[in-house]
Amino acid sequence: MRRLALGLAAALACAAPALADPAPTILHLDQTAERTAPRDELTVELRAEATGADPGRVQAEVNRRMAAALAEVKAVAAVKPASGNYQTYQITPTGPDGKPQPAQWHAMQDLMLTSRDFAAALDLTGRLQAGGLAVGGMRFDIARETLQAAQRTLTDEALNALTERTSQIAATLRLKVARIENLRVGNVSRPGGGPRPMMMARAAGGAAPPPAAEAGDTTISLTVSADIALTPN
User: Fold this and answer.
1) C-alpha span between 33 and 160 (Å, rounded)
2) Cα 102 to Cα 91: distance, rounded to the nearest angstrom
């Protein structure tokens, strides 16, 4: 009897691997949710520049123009200013005959304007151009607050679509969803790029019409990825 019991135990031990659940099928899915959204924030890059033989006077002129510009910007509550790069360097211009001319000094300082009030920002930009600043670039984008709100919605949409698609694939293969092995949720993304380059021309003085621009729409998206274990029904 003892030999029979030992033999039965050995037979069951040998059969255990065959009775174990089969290895699951791993399904890898990427699911993207996207939507079209209006660009609701404007950024304008301006620059104060001056050139001359005396580096002190050149920098003083840039400082004067920038101080006047900042005073005008601060009077417009809807526009946020941010001072940028300041450079002073020597240049050697070339005359009409191709010969080098006496060395000159060139100074410049950047000023960034950001606003969700397009009319106010564009009107202010026109006044700053008339005051001697040049527009170096301009872009319409989506504000951070808008992106954060859209990210919550797009996350739900992408996860719901991933769940629905997983169930559909499992049913087609006559399998069932056992568990999620890995889940990766991305952040909302949008088309990138800096300010669009524009002609660097100083206004001739006097009243200048504001730049004409149209914000338009853009597409924002969010992607989730998952490794999902499927097993037989």
Assistant:
1) 10
2) 9
For the stretch 14-55, pLDDT in tens is 555 545 667 899 999 999 999 999 999 999 999 999 999 999
123, exposed or middle or buried, with CB in 10 Å at 0-12, 13-18, 19+?
middle
> Residue 183 pairs with which residues in a beta bridge?
226
Identify which of 36, 37, 32 has the alpha carbon closest to the alpha carbon of residue 161: 32
Per-residue pLDDT at 19: 53
**Domains, the chain, ordered by start:** 22-40+142-199+209-233 (3.30.110.170), 41-141 (3.30.70.360)
Distance CA 29, CA 19 (A): 30
- Smallest CA-to-CA distance from 42 within 106, 150, 97, 119 is with 119
**CA–CA distance, 88 with 126 (Å, rounded to integer):** 26
At residue 97, the 3 state secondary structure works out as: coil
Please state the pTM of the whole predicted model.
0.71
Please list the helix, strand and coil fractions of the chain in percent, rounded to the nearest 5, in that order.
Answer: 35, 40, 25
What does the pLDDT look like over 90-129, one tens digit per residue? 998 787 888 888 889 999 999 999 999 999 999 999 999 9
Query: What length does the chain have?
Result: 233
Kindly list the distances between the CA atom of residue 156 and the CA atoms of 31, 32, 161, 186, in Å, as whole numbers in the listed order: 11, 11, 8, 12
